[in-house]
Design goal:
disordered N terminus; 9-stranded antiparallel β-sheet; 3 helices; globular; alpha+beta; 181 residues; 9 strands
Length: 181
């Protein structure tokens, strides 16, 4: 009887997304595979997964890219290719902001974190991929995943300029973002 109860509990649970596959076009061309960490940040992973399944991340640019630090994307409201790039990074999605899910995961090379404003509970749709370790982010931002393949593509993403890393000209684009199992 206990085995049957466990089986029903598993069947009733929502399907877990194992990861994302991001097709990038621009100066960087190729595929980035990300393992999502549902056990570390279940609410953030659910939000990213839902947006990816809706196609919201398709054609969204990497709008903030800082050499030696990270590449930021995911502004589904203002970051679509061809939009006014001065607004890229100022928006999110029509879904609610999320409460922080801080963890013991470190911001190492290839780690994916959720972007937010000064309010720790303001993450929505934007995320960033680390070029290098950034221990000052540990415990301050929510870790949602890790690059498992395609770090060469991440490293080729067009860099921005100035302190804020704003990309000038044609930024690299997430052409398609799909959920993998």
């Amino acid at each position: 009887m206990r085995k049957l109860a466990v089986l029903f509990a598993l069947m009733a649970s929502p399907a877990l997304a194992a990861g994302l596959q991001i097709e990038v076009a621009g100066e960087a061309n190729g595929t980035i595979s990300i393992d999502l960490l549902e056990d570390v940040a279940p609410n953030h992973v659910a939000q990213i997964t839902a947006l990816a399944e809706q196609g919201a991340y398709n054609d969204v640019v990497f709008h903030r890219v800082i050499e030696g630090f990270m590449a930021q994307t995911g502004d589904v409201a203002n970051g679509k290719a061809g939009a006014d790039m001065r607004l890229a990074g100022t928006g999110g999605s029509d879904r609610p902001d999320l409460e922080a899910e801080f963890s013991d995961e470190n911001f190492d090379t290839g780690v994916v974190g959720m972007a937010r404003s000064q309010d720790p509970n303001s993450a929505n749709s934007q995320f960033f991929i680390m070029f290098a370790p950034a221990p000052h982010l540990n415990g301050q931002y929510t870790v949602v995943g890790r690059v498992t393949d395609g770090m060469d593509v991440v490293n080729a993403i067009k860099r921005g300029e100035g302190r804020n890393g704003a990309v000038i000209g044609a930024p690299d684009v997430m052409k398609t973002v799909t959920v993998t199992e």
